[in-house]
Structures are given as C-alpha cells and as structure tokens.
Amino acid sequence: MKSKIKHILKKELREMFRDKKSLAMMLVIPIFIPLLVIGMSALFNLEMNVPITDYNQIGFAYSMSDTEKSLADSMNIEVYTGSIDELEKMFKDEKIKAYFTKEDNHYTIHGNDTTNSTYALELAKNYFDTYKSILQKDLLYEEQIDANKILNIITLEENIKIEDNYFASYIINYAFLFIIMAITVSATYPATDATAGEKERGTLETLLTFPIKSKDIIIGKFLSVTISSIITGLLSLILAIISLKLAGNLFPIYENMNLMLPLSSLCYAIMVIIGYSLLISGLCIAIASKCKTFKEAQSALTPLTFISFFPGMIAFMTGITTSNLLSCIPFLNYTLIFTDISNGNINGIHIILMLLSSFIIIALLLKVIIKEYKSEKVLFS
Amino acid sequence: MLKAENIKKKFTKITKNKEKFEFYANNGISMYAYDGEIIGILGPNGAGKTTFLRIIAGILEPTSGAVTFDELNYQDNETEIKKNIAYLSGNTKIYNTLSCYELLLMCADIYDVEKNDAERRILEISKTLDMDSFLYNRIETLSTGQTQRVNIARCLIHNPKYYILDEATNGLDVISSEIILNFIKNEKKKGKTIIYSTHYMEEAENICDKVLLMNHGKIILMGSPDEIKKETKTANLREAFFQKIGEDNNEE
C-alpha cells in the first residue's frame, strides 16, 4: 500500500490555510521583527544622542572664579548658583541635573542614577578634570616647570575598529533570537490544532478509521507544522533583513556599518531556520499529542516559547561561544550558531552537529508519538 | 464474514485518590456476522457497545481475543481491512473547514478510488442522499442532519463491504433517521454486512437479522428478534430487553 503522508499533509495544510488563527500566527508574528529592530535602534540612537540642553544644568554651591565661569561657558554648562539647601531643592525639582559643593580644596559632585543626571555627572566630571588641569598647568608655570612634560608623561590613543559596533551586533543578534522565538510561537498553534485540537473536535476517531498507518498520520501532521514554521522563519528573516537595512540608513549609530549579511551567511541562516523548524515542530507535536484539549495543549506548550528564547539570551549576555558539545544542546545550539553566522564565524562541523543532534531528537520524538497513535492512549490520554 | 472471538478489553481508571482501578469494558465477547446480515447491538449505557464497535473498527486494540474479516486479522492486514470498513457513530465529527465535495474527494483519495470514479460516485451519492443543495458548502455551515448525511456519504464513497454504525441515528430528527435506516436496508440488499448499535428497540426489531444484547461487557442474549421474543416469552424487543437486563443485574 502506498504511503498516505501526502493525503494527511494536504488535509492539514488546507485546514491550516483556511483557519484565520493559524494564518495569523504564521504571518503576523514576523511583523514584530521590524518593530523590534527599528524600535530598539531608535532607542539606542536616542540614548547615544541626548542633546546637551537636556542635562547641562549644573549647580555650584560656591562662588565661582572667572576661570571657572569661562570654562563652564566654553563647555556649554548652564550655571546655577546658590546655597547647598537651595541647590538641593533645585535638584529635587529637576531644575538642575547635578551640583558641586566645595570644602577648601575638596569638591563633591552630587547626582543620581537617572539618565539625564548620569550624563550631567559625566559633563561635570569633564569640567572638573579640565579645571584641575588648568590649575595644575598654572601652578607648574609659576614653578617654571614645563607642564606638558609632567602632565603628558604618558599618552593614550584610542584605536577602535569600526566593525566592533556594539549596537550593530546587539541588534542583529536580537533579530535572530526573535526569529527563533517567532518560529516557536508559530509552531505551537498548528501543532496544537493538528493533535489536541483534532482530539477535542472528535475528528481524530474518524481519522483513525481510515486505512492510514499511524506513521503516515504523524509524519503528515509533523510536515504540515514544519512547513508553517519554515514560512514564519523565512518571512521573519526577510523582514529582519529589510528592517536592518532600513535601520542602517535611518540611524547615525550604525554610520559606516554594514548591517547586511553576505549571501553565504544568509544560506546558512536559512539552513538554521529549516533545522530549527523541524526540531520545534517535532517537540510541539509530541507535547500537544499528550493533551486532551486545545487549552491543555496550549498551556503545556507555553513554557517552550521561553525555553526557546532564554538559553540564547543568556549565551548572548554571558558571551558563551559555540563548541562541539554546545552544538548538540537543543535550543542553545541554534541561537549560538545564529550568533556565529551574524559574526561571520561559520563552522561547518558545528552546523553538522546541530542538525545531527536535532534529527536524532526528532526521530525519537516521532517514534514515541507514532507508538501512542497505535494505541488507544491517543484517544483517552 | 466478520468474526470476533473472545474479545476482552481492560481499561485502567485513576480515581480522585490516585488509586488505579481496572475494569473490563468487554469481557469475552464472541460473535460472527455473515455477508448481507444486519447485526443489532443493544444494551444500556456502559454495557461496552461502543468499545466493542471501536475494536471491530480497528480504533482500539483488544486486550485479548481477535477480530477477523474474511479470515484477515488486524495484526497483519490493518490497512487492507480498514479499506473494506466504514465506521460511523452518532458523535462522528468531520472536518468543518472543508466543503462536502472536498471531504468526499479526500476520503476517496485515501481509499485509493480513482479520481474519475470518485467524482462520479460523489455525484451519485449526493443525488441518493439529497445533498445536491449543499454539496459545495463548507461542513461548518450545515445542520446536524445534513452533517450526518455527509458522514453517510463519506462511508459510501469507497463502497465498503462492512459498515460499523454506533448509535448513528442518535439525536437526529425523524427524516434524517429515516435516511440512515433506508441506507442500511439498501446496503443489506447489496450484500453488505452491517453491525449496528442503537437504543431504539423498534428500529432494531424492524431491520436486524440478529440482535446481541449486552450488559456489563458481556453478551447476555443473542439471536434473531423472533428467537429472542420466543425465548423471553415477550411481545417485543423492548420487553425482552428490560426482562433480561433486570435478570442480569439481579444476578450481579
């Protein structure tokens, strides 16, 4: 008897594409990626380009010399003077963002950890260092000592490579992490509908009376969920590329940066999307088929969304890099390899190990579900 | 010929106190049905009728015993047997998002009916079951009676040899029930075997060649409606039913 997989696949796909919720899960979730990329980029840009007028109000609780006044003026500092109590009140009322107090030659800068105050403290520190340097130079001049020789006894030059743009790598990695999450969310709905949903609607009994082997039923359902996940993954990737390109043009923080991935990296990214779609579809089908109702299956699958996201996020934050062992750990391996792809550090062995470990897991999961569909457990569990 | 030999089906229930409780839904059921026979299965709720029919239809596996169709068993010939069976229950649900035509075409495809034959059969069946007015409508838009007619059409599409009907007229109006009963009679004329469970005694008395009365997972009486009435010295199947079930419950 020839395989009936294509019949089940056709039926599942037809049901999926006619169900508004399935379609929404498949097609709407990727739309969040441009929002994430553009939104985060705008936020970074805002953080990096705060206008000085937002934080240059600095108080001085002492009488300033002419040198100090002129320095403050040259540094665009809006000077507020008054007693300590007056400045404290102005600070509380957010009229000033930081203020100096002075006792003999000891200065204290007061501020807090709000964004504007942090910037004001930075400005105040610059002001203080510059003023200290002027005083030091004056003193050395009085002592007839070459100030440059003393003050510049050692020098520091900053040589920062333009490729090491923190924001660019951050945004690309997060876009990839979100693709993983979008695929997970997209797989849960059709997997639930095809298993627990079918059970709840009572159509599973009908399906089991057909001359179709359990293996064909499961593989058909698994492939339909995988196709839905791949569609979401590819759509997410396309939207991520478009939004990265757009962000690169829109925001000065990515100036001189190429946010686009080379074609080879995109091919690897597609490979990762397909591999991950297969893995997550197998997992979702395995979990959902154990549940009696749609609601129960959705509750059981919710943690999977977080599980898919967190290992990658932790790896990204802690700077874990891919190894042969980590390439075999589900979820972590996909996000690590996605990070490698975005950084251009592609390792073929890691990709092979990632796919191999996934295929083994998928085969084991499918074996368990097929066994379940052969027994009455599938109707009564 | 359909043969069921010493069918036992054990289920395990877990009580609220998490204690395991085992019981037999079917406890040694044996029966046979010749080609062209209508076998009625009667019994109160919980007698094990649905479990037995599900075992015959290959949805459940018996704990022990065997079911054979024309000497073929489920262990070795599951798909071959299922190609010759149509299963329909009062609760059978079908795919709501498909139109009746799409569903029937899908079923025909699954049962390896050639596409041209399938299209011809769909039109024939649609005419017989008076489905023409809603053949291309989505199933989700149909009434209960119309949906059950689509279900019957689904059963007919592959021209099976055996029909297993579990309370198929349950909850249907008189007209829809009549359509199903006519369908059963017509199929019998074609030499098809029908295993049929129902709560409607008069229905069973009118159309069944043989009746099995089940209680507590066992067959307590078997024979033609006339034989049963003679044995129990009652005027109809309803009286025979109450008498035998009463006796069996007292013995238990």
Short structural summary:
The complex is a heterodimer of chains A (381) and B (252). Chain A is built from 15 helices and 4 strands.
Notable characteristics:
heterodimer, A: 381 residues, mainly alpha, D-Maltodextrin-Binding Protein, domain 2, 2 domains, four-stranded mixed beta sheet, 4 strands, 70% helix, 5% strand, elongated, B: 252 residues, alpha/beta, four-stranded antiparallel beta sheet, 10 strands, globular
How does this structure look, described?
The complex is a heterodimer of chains A (381) and B (252). Chain A is mainly alpha-helical and 381 residues long. Chain A is built from 15 helices and 4 strands. In chain A, α1 packs across α10 and α8 packs antiparallel against α10 (214-250). Chain A is elongated, with a radius of gyration of 30 Å. Chain B has 252 residues and is an alpha/beta fold. Chain B contains 9 helices and 10 strands. In chain B, the strands form 2 sheets. Chain B has a 6-stranded mixed sheet with strand order 6-7-8-3-9-10, sandwiched between helices. In chain B, strands 2-1-4-5 form a 4-stranded antiparallel sheet. In chain B, β9 (210-215) and β10 form a beta hairpin. The mean pLDDT of chain B is 90. The chains are: A mainly alpha (381), B alpha/beta (252). The A-B interface holds A 1-2, 4, 7, 10-11, 14-15, 18-19, 201-203, 205-206, 208-213, 374-376, 379-380 and B 11, 57-61, 78-83, 85-87, 89, 91-98, 102, 106-107, 109-112, 154.
